[in-house]
Amino acid sequence: MTSFLLDVDTGIDDALALAYLAALPDTEFVSVTATPGNVDAEQVARNTLALLELCGRPGVEVAIGARRPLSVPLLTTPETHGPQGLGHAVLPEPAGKVSDRDAVDLWIEHARARPGELTALLTAPLTNFALALRKEPDLPELLARVVIMGGSFYYQGNTTPTAEWNTHVDPHAAKEVYAAYRGRPADKLPVVCSLDTTERMEMHPDHLRQLAEAAGSKVPELVLPDQPEGRRSTSGNTVVRHLSDALRFYFEFHRRYDQGYLAHVHDFFAAGVAAGTLEYTVRPATVDVETESPLLLGTTVADFRGLWGVPPNARIVTNNNPEQAFAELVSVVGSLASRLG
Fold first, then answer.
1. Are 57 and 51 contacting, i.e. CB atoms less than 8 angstroms apart?
2. Percent of the chain as helix, strand, coil, to the nearest 5
3. Which one, 51, 105, 136, 245, has least CB within 10 Å?
4. Where are the beta strands (DSSP E) in the chain?
5. Total-model pTM
6. Among candidates 89, 69, 84, 91, which has minimal Cα distance to 172?
7. Cβ(52)–Cβ(4) under 8 Å?
């Protein structure tokens, strides 16, 4: 059993990550917290509640912490994820309510109550996690492991030429998080899934077709580049229909920016790393984040060779296996969709 504390900014690829984790039989959602990023924090929380209920995980406590980054104005990304964060998908209004507790307090409470048991998965800007570390500096020792989706090292950024989205939204929080891990034991260092490897996770229309087949759909789920933008799925399977509508928007966005009719599903890969189900390799490095230069704001820098003379504070994923990852996604999420109908 993997027991998760998650921090998300749901988000199309966050939604896919949550669906994947919900589909695994041996995962526990201890708490899910909302950080503003793809959409504002309130919308993130509503999306997350609705998605968890859609995927058969009602009753999970979903809480909001920070409403804005530590030091810079909040940027959201409706052009990438749609005005509500889930592309063309419109999920039913959740039956559950957003917790009135503070996300930062929840992280600390759960980590203290279950030392060494909880896996933290962070697929959003690191604002809430930075605030939790300020309040409980021993959090890195209390958590079993930490997986971060963020950063870009030997790879072009996806928000500026050098910066990845999550880090760019709150570079000061990311800088604080990496600083908090200096001098920690090697097995406690966060595993960082950066664009260098997450952009290898290219989801294509055929993966959606395979997913629908795995769910038992009799009619092929065809999301094709020559179809009109904004077309909605008619699948009789609720999970397939909503994921299809969300991912169509993501395909359309990537094509608009000359990347092809596909979707980089960054957060699904990070979820698989956290769950221990996907293949990957890591390399230790010392990571820092630029917070002063207007030109390079949010840029992550990794010292793999010890040139700074500072101990490693991260384990950066350097390789993965997209073919294995998508076979896993289709099988696991397809099985969930089949069960839920």
1. no
2. 40, 15, 45
3. 105
4. 2-8, 27-34, 62-64, 118-122, 145-149, 191-193, 202-203, 263-264, 280-289, 300-303, 314-320
5. 0.97
6. 69
7. no
